[in-house]
Design brief:
Low-confidence stretches: none
Structural class: alpha/beta
Number of strands: 14
Distance between the termini: 48 Å
Helix content: 25-40%
Mean pLDDT: 96
Strand order of the largest sheet: 2-3-1-4-7-6-5
Shape: elongated
Length: 371
């Protein structure tokens, strides 16, 4: 059986996610802003949850249609083959969002979705009242420019929840965004990666997991494992394949520094939980005392910036110090993400490439120096 899926992602990482989806066997891939649609078997669904590094979650698309009135919304849902996915005793709570659409009240949309789904399933099962005492089928919806999409979540907790970052510093970068930066930097098994503002270690750990080919979802569970149309064997097979692909024979090294002793200790602890502790070295160090580790180095970093941890003037002072310490690159590479549009001029060099990425709702740029 072939199903239709959608995987949301950070704005700016759609191309990276598209490549990942094709690699695991996803077909009919269509990219939109902040999400990628694709099709595949139940096996593809399990692999998507276990292997995708930049997806926020994986959902089965139950239906898509245009809706500019509540009647159109109700009738559209009432016609969908929901009983193929949701059992007679399953619960089906819903939430979602509306953007640039005539139907803008999310609570009102939620009520219509619930009512229409109840009528649909009640008719399919010949029941006037649905007990909703069984497995939870978490429903998500999006209404964008009057295009309604009804989805069944197969991930549960967001896929950025790898399981290794139980604690974090004051301003962490999400694991899925970090994985996108790692992909853009083309981190490989023989690389040396450094983060002089390591925080809770996310960029270093995601680099290590990519270099060692450790699947991000290998050590966690998913909501889809409780859905009747996704057999248990596909999840077991995906995990077995993921374990067989791990490669720990490379020369990869990750080196992290932070001025905060607690952050340095947190990075080391999180790396150990992630299973990459032996590849990550961490120490307490001020950026003013930065020195390149041995070998050709890729610096991946999310430096402090105004409105987050420091005043803008303090953050920009750090950018200037970074320029003094990092330049000339002499064959090393730098990938720095920040919302500050003045970064290049303060750092002292124009990036070889800069691309727009969103860190949550904050528009940032990834400044890449690799020549």
């Amino acid at each position: 059986m072939i199903y239709n899926y959608v995987a949301p992602c950070h704005f700016g990482l759609e191309k990276t996610l598209t490549f990942e989806i094709k690699k695991i066997g996803g077909e009919n891939v269509v990219t939109e802003n902040g999400r990628v649609f694709f099709s595949g078997s139940a096996e593809v669904c399990a692999k998507a949850n276990v292997f995708l590094r930049t997806a926020e979650r994986v959902c089965v698309v139950l239906g898509r249609f245009r809706a500019v009135t509540f009647d159109e919304l109700f009738e559209g849902i009432r016609r969908l083959p929901l009983s193929e996915f949701i059992g007679r005793t399953d619960s089906f709570p819903n939430n979602g969002h509306s953007l640039n659409s005539k139907l803008s009240s999310v609570p009102a949309i939620q009520k219509i979705v619930k009512k229409a789904m109840a009528m649909n399933l009640g008719k399919a099962y010949g029941m006037s009242v649905l007990p909703e005492s069984g497995a939870e089928c978490r429903i998500r919806f999006s209404l964008m420019k009057d295009e309604f999409t009804l989805m069944l979540d197969t991930s549960g907790q967001g896929l950025h929840k790898r399981g290794y970052r139980r604690d974090s510093n004051a301003a962490p970068i999400r694991e899925t965004l970090a994985a996108g930066i790692v992909d853009i930097a083309r981190v490989r098994a023989g690389d040396v990666v450094c983060d002089p503002f390591c925080g809770s270690g996310t960029l270093l750990i995601e680099s290590a997991m990519k270099a060692l080919n450790i699947a991000p979802g290998l050590n966690r569970r998913f909501a889809g494992e409780h859905l009747r149309f996704l057999p248990g064997r596909v999840w077991a097979a995906a995990r077995e394949e993921a374990r067989s692909l791990i490669k720990k024979d490379g020369d990869f090294r990750a080196v992290g520094f932070d001025i905060d002793k607690e952050c340095a200790e947190l990075t080391a602890a999180n790396a150990k939980i992630a299973g990459v502790g032996e590849y990550v070295t961490v120490g307490r160090r001020d950026i003013r005392n930065f020195a390149y580790p041995d070998g050709k180095v890729k610096i991946l970093t999310n430096p402090p910036y105004g409105e987050r941890m420091l005043e803008i003037s303090e953050a920009r002072e750090i950018y200037g110090i970074m320029g003094e310490k990092f330049l000339p690159l002499n064959g090393n590479e730098l990938y720095a993400i920040t919302p500050d549009e003045e970064f290049e001029s303060i750092f002292g060099a124009k990036a070889d490439k800069n691309r727009k990425l969103y860190n949550g709702m904050m528009m940032c740029r990834l400044y890449s120096y690799f020549r």
